[in-house]
User: Fold this.
Amino acid sequence: MLAVGLFGPGVSSAQAETSGDQAVVAADASSGSFVDIPADYVYEPSLGALHDYCTSSPSYFPGNPAADFRGPCARHDMCYEAHVAGKSTCDNNLFWDLYANCEYTYSAEDSQRGYCETDAGVYWAAVTAVGGY
Assistant:
C-alpha cells in the first residue's frame, strides 16, 4: 500500500527530511535520466487537457536552469488517454518522471533540486486529488 501525502507515492512524512522550510523527499528515485516528450505525443491544446502538457500548471520548474516538466506531463496525458494502466499508476509514474527530471537537471548539492522534487510531490498530489482519468 502506498503512503499518501504531499511527498509523492510511497513516501510518507516519516520518510521525508525537513531542511528549513523545505520538504526534501528521502526516497530512491530513478537513475536520473531525462524523461523527454514521447515522439507520438500530440501537443494541441484545442483538443483538450490531454494534449497540453501540464494543463494549468507550469511546464517547467522555474530554476536556473529550468527543469523541463513537459515530457513527464505528456506521458501522463498519454497514460490517461490510453486507459490501459489505472489512474493511480499514471499518477505515480508522473511523480517519478518529474522527480527524474529534477535529478537530471540539478546535482545533489544544488538546493534547487529539493525544491524541484517538492514540486513533483505537489503535482502528484494535485492529479491524485482531482485528475480526470
